[in-house]
Each structure stands twice: as C-alpha cells, then as structure tokens.
Design a protein that fits this description.
There is one protein chain. The protein contains four helices and eight strands, in the order βαβββααβαβββ. The protein is of the alpha/beta class and 144 residues long. The protein has two domains: 72 residues, Signal recognition particle alu RNA binding heterodimer, srp9/1 (2-Layer Sandwich), CATH 3.30.720; 53 residues, 2,3-Dihydroxybiphenyl 1,2-Dioxygenase, domain 1 (Roll).
Length: 144
C-alpha cells in the first residue's frame, strides 16, 4: 500500500485554495472544477470542497454520481467532527526569507520562529490555513 495524497476537507473552498496558492506560489491542478484540486509538492496535497457534494446530494440532480452508502454516510449531512491533529510540514532552504515573505502576505496568523534541539538543531514557524490546519515550515536558519 502507498499513500495516494493528503487532502483537506473544507466548506471554504475558494478561500482555502487561494491561501495555498499564495503561500506556496503555485497553482493547483484542477480535477473537478469547484470540487477537487491537487498541489504537487513531491507528494500530493489536495483540497476537497464538501459543499459541492452537499448541493448535488440535496438537489438530487444527478443520483448517478453517488451510491446509497455514500449518501447515507456523507459527513456534512450529520454533525461534523472537526479536529486538526495533523501538521503539514514543509522544508525551505532559507527559513528567515520564507518567514518574511509569508508575514508580508498578511493571510493568517504566523508564529515566531522557534528552535528545538533534541537530536539536532531544528528551526521552524507555524501558519494556519482558513480551516485552522497547522502548517509547519522548517529549514535552514541564519540569524541576521
């Protein structure tokens, strides 16, 4: 078995897509307009617009798109559990430069640059997407 991708489920599709495009300075590959987009960073990070399926299921315009099990199990038709217990971790060769670039975007909360040294020196900062998911950006750090 292999990991196909990690994806973020959202009700804020356009906002989340725009956030990732600005932070990572790249456009995603659209597979289904307004429903699914993939960013390739060596591994895929995708964004899934749950509201796309909500509308199709509610309108029942194309019942061929979903089987009964999918509709009965669809998460947004019942109370949604939300937890942000995973962290997306990205590496950059110049942490200070990337930190300054992202701060200037003024898109989200940006932590201070943090330092940990358990097995080796590790510098990183966190940002948070519109759904509250943590993105940890680590890398080489030279204090100027």
């Amino acid at each position: 078995m292999e990991l196909c991708c990690v994806y973020i489920e959202t009700d804020k599709f356009d906002e989340v897509v725009s956030f990732y495009e600005k932070v990572f300075q790249t456009k995603g590959n659209i597979y289904t307009k307004n429903r699914w987009i993939e960013f390739d960073f060596g591994n895929k990070l995708s964004i899934y617009n749950r509201l796309y399926d909500v509308e199709k299921i509610k309108n029942n315009t194309t019942p061929v798109n979903y089987n009964e099990q999918y509709v009965n199990n669809f998460p947004s038709l019942k109370e949604r559990n939300v937890n942000n217990i995973i962290t997306l971790n990205f590496y950059t060769s110049n942490l200070k430069q990337e930190y300054n670039r992202i701060k200037k975007l003024n898109l989200c909360e940006v932590s201070e640059i943090m330092y940990v040294n358990i097995t080796e020196p590790y510098y990183y900062f966190n940002i948070y997407d519109p759904e509250g998911n943590t993105i940890e950006i680590c890398g080489d750090y030279i204090d100027e």
